[in-house]
Amino acid sequence: MTDEETASLRATAHPLRLRMLSLLTGTAMSAAEVARELGITHANASYHLRVLLDAGLIDVEGEERIRGGMAKRYQHHFERSEPRRTSEQLTDEVAAMTQELLRRWRANAGRMQTLTDAELWVTPAVWQEVLEALRRTSLALHEQAQRPRTEGTVKVNLTIAGFLMESDS
């Protein structure tokens, strides 16, 4: 695994940075805008944005002059291919996603619209069909992401984890 792939995986193993990636999917935002939206300090937002930028997960989409200084605007491009992950790196990312899902659940428990938990036996062909449908769904949602609080939009959550399981002995 390359140093860049390792940096990318470490960057996604933090719940706040996962939130930032989601936020920056729909629009380019400055550190100040990210800080306001997430309720964190500007310094904290800047630090985490630098980690994401250094890992190659976000791009600088432009700069704007604000009060005598230059503010960078960052954006996440979801469609990029993901690096290969080791088992340990996946474990860290799943832990971060789980922590973030619990935060979202606690804040919005009464609004759950669908929940699926399944441990099933299906044919490999069915599994591949389902995985492709999940990928298309995720891509469609990310492609339609809007700037936070855009009129006519609603804030949603979609967390998907699909994996083959070992057979019980």
List keywords for this structure.
169 residues; mainly alpha; Arc Repressor Mutant, subunit A; two-stranded antiparallel sheet; 2 strands; DNA-binding; transcription; transcription regulation; HTH arsR-type domain-containing protein; WH_DNA-bd_sf
Judged by helices, strands and strand pairing, the structural class is mainly alpha
Fraction of helical residues: 40-55%
Shape: globular
Along the chain, the helix and strand elements come as: HHHHEEHH
The largest beta-sheet arranges its strands as 1-2
Number of beta-strand segments: 2
> What would the average pLDDT be, to the nearest integer?
87
CATH topology: Arc Repressor Mutant, subunit A
The residue ranges in which pLDDT falls below 50 over 5 or more consecutive positions are none
Radius of gyration: 18 Å
Number of helices: 6
Distance between the termini: 32 Å
Largest sheet: 2 strands, antiparallel
Number of domains: 1
CATH superfamily membership: Winged helix-like DNA-binding domain superfamily/Winged helix DNA-binding domain
Question: How does this model look, in words?
Answer:
By secondary structure, the chain is mostly helical. It has one domain (3-143): Orthogonal Bundle (Arc Repressor Mutant, subunit A), CATH 1.10.10. It has 6 helices and 2 strands; from the N terminus they run ααααββαα. A hairpin with a 2-residue loop joins β1 (58-66) and β2 (69-76). The two termini are 32 Å apart. The model has no long low-confidence stretch (mean pLDDT 87).
